Each structure stands twice: as C-alpha cells, then as structure tokens.
Automatic annotation (TrEMBL):
<feature type="compositionally biased region" description="Basic and acidic residues">
    <location>
        <begin position="294"/>
        <end position="306"/>
    </location>
</feature>
<dbReference type="InterPro" id="IPR038765">
    <property type="entry name" value="Papain-like_cys_pep_sf"/>
</dbReference>
<feature type="active site">
    <location>
        <position position="30"/>
    </location>
</feature>
<dbReference type="Pfam" id="PF00569">
    <property type="entry name" value="ZZ"/>
</dbReference>
<feature type="region of interest" description="Disordered">
    <location>
        <begin position="288"/>
        <end position="308"/>
    </location>
</feature>
<dbReference type="InterPro" id="IPR001300">
    <property type="entry name" value="Peptidase_C2_calpain_cat"/>
</dbReference>
<feature type="domain" description="ZZ-type">
    <location>
        <begin position="338"/>
        <end position="391"/>
    </location>
</feature>
<dbReference type="InterPro" id="IPR022684">
    <property type="entry name" value="Calpain_cysteine_protease"/>
</dbReference>
<protein>
    <submittedName>
        <fullName>Uncharacterized protein</fullName>
    </submittedName>
</protein>
<dbReference type="GO" id="GO:0004198">
    <property type="term" value="F:calcium-dependent cysteine-type endopeptidase activity"/>
</dbReference>
<dbReference type="Pfam" id="PF00648">
    <property type="entry name" value="Peptidase_C2"/>
</dbReference>
<feature type="active site">
    <location>
        <position position="10"/>
    </location>
</feature>
<dbReference type="GO" id="GO:0008270">
    <property type="term" value="F:zinc ion binding"/>
</dbReference>
<dbReference type="InterPro" id="IPR043145">
    <property type="entry name" value="Znf_ZZ_sf"/>
</dbReference>
<keyword id="KW-0479">Metal-binding</keyword>
<feature type="domain" description="Calpain catalytic">
    <location>
        <begin position="1"/>
        <end position="89"/>
    </location>
</feature>
<dbReference type="InterPro" id="IPR000433">
    <property type="entry name" value="Znf_ZZ"/>
</dbReference>
C-alpha cells in the first residue's frame, strides 16, 4: 500500500535541502530506485512552472522514474516521523560484536528485561556507539517466521544500580537501535527487552509454502542458516540439511576421503569423552568443577579420599566405588529421572542431579553428576544444578531439545550487540541468555 507514492515503514535517503524564493525543498531518494512521491512538487507536477525552474537547478535534479524526487519541506514534515543521521567510521574506529540466537520466545508475555544481556569492558576513555541489532532477514523474508521483533536496551556501569543511558525509542520494525556516548574505562552491562508482535497469521506459511518453487525454498533456507550461524550458540545439527558445505572443506581431496576423516574425527572425540568418564568412574579422580544452585550459591566438587567425598549443597556425601558402567541406567530409590533428558557426556538418562549449562555458547546442554566433574566441558561455563524435574520445570521451563528446532513453526531471534570504539580501546564483549525463569519470584522469596 502506498500513500501518494510513498511506502509506509520504509526508509528514504535525504540527498539535499535548498531554499528558493522563500520556499524550502527537500531532495529524497527511494533506495529501491522506483515508487516516487506523487504529491505537490513531484516529477511532472503542475507546480513546476518556469518561475520555479531555478529550484531544480539548485537541487541538481532531473525528473525521471529513478526513485529520486522533490518534496516541499512542509509536506516532508507531514509524511515522515523520524530523521536519522549516518555516522561513517574511518580507520581510527574498531568494532566488537557478540550474537546469540534466542529460541522459544512467546508472544503473550510481559514487556520486560531478563531474556538476554551483554557485558563489555574497555581499557581507556573513548567515544562509543552501541548498537543492538537483529540480523537482516530480507534474503529469506518468506522464511523469517510470523513474528515481528522490536527491542530496546539500557546501559549500566558495573557496580552501579543507576542506568547510564538509553537509546531513543526506535520506530516499529527497526532492525537496530543505537546509542552514542562517551565511555570511561571499566566494565558495562547492557540489558535488552524484547517486544513481540505478529507480522502475519501463524498459518500463512503452511498455507502458502506448498505452492512455492521448492528449489527457491531450499536456497532461501540455506541463506537463513548461513545468517543464523553468526550466533555464538548456533546449533549446526538443527540446520544440517540446509547449510551448504564450503568448497575449501573439499579442495584437493575427494568426497570419500573427507567423509572418512569426519567419521574418524567424531570417533576420536567420542572415545576421548568415554575414556575420561570411565576413568573417573573407576578411580573417583574427579576434577574440581564449579556449579551453582538456583539460590545462586557457588559450590565445588572436591576429591577427598578413595570413597569420593563430595560437597553437595553444603552437605558431605560419601559415595561408594562405582562399577564399570558409566551411569546408572535406572534411577535409584527416591530419585526421579529427568524425563527424556540425556547426558551430553555419556549419553545415558540423567538420574539424580541434572547439571544444565547456562553459558550462551551452549544450547540445551546437560550433564549427569558424574560427567559434570571429569573435564569434558569447558571449565569457565557455569552449570546450574537441578535436583528434580519439578525444579527444572520451575526454573527452566520447556527447553528446545537437539534436532527439534523448527524456525517455520517457532521463529527464533538472532540478536547481536555491536560496540564501536576508538581502536586504542577495543571492547571485549560477552553475552548471556536468561535461561532461568521466575527470577522475580526467586529474588522475592530469597
């Protein structure tokens, strides 16, 4: 739908502004190269008499169907609500970024913080531009989902409860919001909140996709997978049939040779994990591994004697020597199994405590108690200890199991923070996803 030739919720470029005979004129361009303003002072309109030809010369404009057009300033003010400037970064600037894929966002929820946050640090005073941005979905618009995401953010300095700044409220359907600010050395925290709306009926995709060219659908889904792969927690297994394999993977080798190498690499990784787990099971020689309970208290597994004294929730528990089996196949008496959740270390069903990785680089990664202490997962990743399935439901809700993600049914949001600074003080960024639900309830009751 157009209004006097202008496309709603569409950005135009302002090329020039002139004043001629006490009238103000604005020269604009539609980046599409067509669909021009058709109101007063448009190309070919009756206002362009010989008296006003001089304005065209000042604007350096020639009428034509090229997307460039003239508006009188008062009409420009009536039609456009936001005017943004563009900042050009030269070689004195650097940019750091951190992207995450957010799944399972629901439309019927509070407009609130807690889904995602970032921290970044700078070493010297610097001007900065902070940009919160979602990926450009125009390459695969029909497969971007039925939800529309809007967002904003607030900036804090570490150790202070008072916000430093917020960006100007963005227009609906904006791909990014930004803030220009002078920053002192130190650590900063960015909290984002996400608003969700429907961009179309949820059923529209399934009603339409059957009539589309399947070759084009495959190409667009490949573009979607490539775009999403920028996320730190991107799960390649969910897009295995959509991701193209880069040519350099094959290069001077035939496909069989490459395939054999892939199988052997996978087998070596599996055997390494199994060796670590089995050795720990037989000897009780456990690495000291940090985890925290839902109360926020950090704990550690500590080796103490041949029977394996562990500090669990502040209590000493003596464990007997284990058999050759890696994990118990059946839950012990009084312990509830965690549904269909399997350990990503040994592959066995998790009985007893479940250790859920809350690092943004992991997605639905779970370990049993044994595997959580043998060094198969990065030590810097924080593990949330969940005693029962009920506790997991309360604080995690429903997670998205491996291989079950469907972006057509439940669209995900790939959101990134970009921090531009002078190159003498580059930003170091880390991102965090709010896996833990009921934060308000937990803080209040705690």
């Amino acid at each position: 739908m157009e209004i006097n030739g202008l496309v709603p919720l569409h950005a135009y470029s302002v090329l020039k502004v002139v004043e001629y005979k006490e009238k103000r004129f604005v020269l604009l361009r539609n980046p599409w190269g067509n669909s021009e303003w058709t109101g007063p002072w448009s190309d070919g309109s009756p206002e362009w008499t010989d008296e006003w030809r001089g304005a065209l010369e000042l604007l350096d404009h020639r009428p034509g169907n090229d997307g460039v057009f003239v508006m009188e300033y008062r009409d420009f003010l009536k039609q456009f609500a936001v005017l943004e400037s563009t900042k050009l970064f030269d070689e004195s600037w650097v940019v750091s970024s951190y992207w995450m894929q957010l799944r399972g966002l629901k439309i019927d929820r509070a407009w609130s913080y807690g889904d995602v946050s970032w921290t970044f640090a700078i070493s010297e005073k610097t001007p900065a531009v902070i940009v919160l941005q979602q990926i450009d979905t125009r390459y695969f618009m029909d497969h971007a989902g039925w939800l529309q995401f809007n967002f904003d953010f607030v900036l804090f300095k570490k150790g202070s409860k008072e916000p430093i700044a917020r960006p100007v409220k963005p227009m609906p359907a904006s791909r990014s919001v930004n803030l220009e600010i002078e920053l002192e050395p130190g650590e900063y925290v960015v909290h984002a909140r996400i608003d969700i709306d429907e961009s179309c009926r949820q059923e529209w995709y399934h009603e339409s996709v059957g009539s589309w060219n399947r070759r084009k659908v495959a190409r667009q889904k490949a573009e979607r997978a490539i775009a999403y792969s920028i996320a730190s927690n991107f799960r390649q297994a969910d897009y295995i049939d959509q991701l193209p394999v880069p040519l350099e993977v094959f290069a001077d080798r035939d496909v069989v040779e490459v395939g054999i190498e892939a199988v052997e690499t996978s087998r070596v990784a599996y055997l390494r994990r199994k060796t670590l787990i089995t050795a720990s099971s037989k000897t009780h020689s456990r690495a000291s591994t940090g985890w925290f309970g839902h109360d926020g208290e950090t704990n550690n597994h500590e080796e103490d004697g041949s029977k394996g004294m562990l500090l669990l929730g502040g209590k000493e528990v003596t464990t007997e020597p284990e058999t050759d089996s890696v994990c118990e196949e059946n839950p012990s008496e009084g312990v509830s199994p965690h549904g269909n959740v399997h350990c990503d270390g040994c592959g066995s069903p998790i009985n007893g405590p479940r250790f859920y990785c809350v690092d943004s680089r992991c997605s639905d990664y779970n370990l049993c108690e044994l595997c959580s202490g043998v060094g198969i997962h990065p030590r810097e990743h924080r593990l949330l200890r969940l005693e029962t399935p009920e506790e997991a439901d309360k604080f995690l809700g429903s997670t998205v199991p491996h291989g079950t993600l469907n972006d057509d049914e439940n669209p995900s949001l790939v959101l990134g923070l970009r921090v531009y600074t002078h190159k003498e003080s580059p930003a170091t960024i880390e991102g965090f996803i709010g896996h833990i639900r009921n934060i308000k309830q937990s803080v209040k009751s705690g």
